[in-house]
Amino acid sequence: MPVNSFEDYPMSWKPDRARLSPPLYASIASLLEQDITSGLLPPNTLLPPQRELADFLDLNLSTVTRAYKVCELKGLIYASVGKGTFVSPNINLPNVVENHSQLSPVIEMGVIKPFYNTNSIVLETISALTKKNGAEALLEYSHPLGTPYQKQNAQKWLAGSGVKADMDHILIASGAQNALTVALVSLFKPGDKIATDMFTHPNFISLANMLNIQLVPIAGDTSGMLPDALEAACTSHKLAGVYLMPCFSNPTNITMPALRREELARIINTRSLTVIEDEVYAFLAPPDCVPFFQLAPDHTVYICSTSKSVCAGLRVAFMACAPRFRTPLISGIYNINLKTSSLNTEVIAELIHNGTAQLIVQQKTELARIRNQLCDEILGNGDIQPKQRGAGFFRWLPLPGTQNGLLFEKLAQAAGVHLFSSDRFAVGETSGQSFVRLAISSPEDHHELEKGLRIVQSLLQHPGSLPEEPDFIV
Fold first, then answer.
1. Which of 231, 323, 392, 455 has the highest Cβ tally under 10 A?
2. 272 in the same domain as 135
3. Does residue 1 lie in a domain region?
């Protein structure tokens, strides 16, 4: 029996000792996972200290420590030095894509729709391509790594973002998420730790959790990840890699300036960190943005999806890799994909070759500029942080005072606007301030965007209508 009585002792989690079975650490971890995923333990709940829980269960401290570590690797909990262990903030939130279907008509500003009105141009190329002699070969298993023509145009597209790679080190994947999967499975192992921004892409968070890869949040400022914080994490966490979105980072909308890139690259090169450079929005960035693939060429896998820039439905991404990564990445592509659709890749290659892809980018860039201008006019550019060179597809809006992000998201939904709060993007502990991401590219037209922004503005201007504590779970 425990030395101390816990009958009336306040603990946030009291697992039933009778439900435990060998191995005990795995059983504790399983019970903790069940209570987190069921909602019994809400996000950001402070869990009992490991020693306290061990005393309560009358077990060795090492057993509880091991159980917590299992849940930490799954992304269910996170530890904050000097504060304790907490339930992860976004563990029970629906995936961004899963939340795309709405039960009632709303203005979409949650899911990022990359201006679908240019898809008609893509259809013209598809139609012409399927009428060419030999087009049926595009429906076969041939050329699993892509044809020379496809890779030549991939090389051309990458060069437009400053990526200088020979064709042997350019690979083709079925979209950015598939490329991320290939990179994680091929270059990392369960238990590895990867540094990320404190707010990052939720699909990357889910993928890392699925593969039992632990994400370590690194503090940042309006220029992106802080070099000193990354250096400290390398020592304290023995990092294996770092995940970066240097241009229009999702969700914070930050584009790293040159000096910050150089400072981080020095650490990456010194520490031999494996870099996953996710640059789905590089096509919107100023031309002077130098990719990490050039700053840390021996350590970087550069991922450039054409989903946001050209056509979302074709699901094609290009990967440029350091020579030492080529063999494991090819193995990963074979084992995960067998191959990427030849038809889809050929369409993208043809669009690049005939200049149509660049025309689509120009149209989307201009549409983004117009919509960002409207956003500034309605919400005031001083309220949007940070202000970037260039115009992105979304904005990162800080909520005033102590407004709760999930509550704001729910109220916006009720008012007719679908958006996402910062809780969905959080990795571990955040500063406490809440944000919302507004996908300004997603409304059907200028009028619908203006209506959605007016609704958001109204909610921001009447904080008194927001109760201090939410009475629902999203």
1. 392
2. yes
3. no
Average pLDDT over residues 335-358: 94
Omega cis (within 30) before 23: yes
* Proportion of the chain above pLDDT 90, given as a percent: 70
Q: With bands split at pLDDT 50, 70 and 90, how would you rate the model's confidence at 3? A: low
Q: Inform me whether the pLDDT recorded for 72 exceeds 90.
A: no
Provide the total of helices (H) and of strands (E) in the chain, helices listed first: 15, 16
Q: What backbone phi and psi angles, to 5 degrees, belong to 5?
A: -90, 130
pLDDT at residue 470 greater than cutoff 80: no
* Cα end-to-end span (Å), the chain: 40
Question: What pTM was estimated for this model as a whole?
Answer: 0.84
Could you report the per-residue pLDDT of 422-454, keeping only the tens digit for each?
989 999 877 677 899 999 999 999 999 999 999
376 plus 441 within the same structural domain: yes
Last residue in a domain, options 354, 381, 400: 354
- Residue among 144, 164, 172 at smallest CA distance from 305: 172
For residue 299, what are the domain limits?
A: 118-354
Considering the domain boundaries, does residue 430 fall inside one?
A: yes
**DSSP element (H, E) containing 396:** strand 395-398
Contact 60, 54 (CB under 8 A): yes
- Identify the burial level of 346 via C-beta atoms within 10 angstroms of its C-beta, where 0-12 means exposed, 13-18 middle and 19 or more buried: buried
Total domain count for the chain? 3
pLDDT value at position 357?
Answer: 97
- 234 and 365 together in one domain: no
Same-domain status, 434 and 334 = no
Tokens of 16: 């039933």
Residue 61: what residue type? L
Q: What is the CATH number of the domain that holds 460?
A: 3.90.1150.10
pLDDT exceeding 70 applies to what percent of the chain? 91
Residues 331 and 461 in one domain: no
Last residue of a domain, one of 354, 373, 408: 354
Please name which of 449, 385, 383 lies closest in space to residue 418, comparing C-alpha atoms.
449
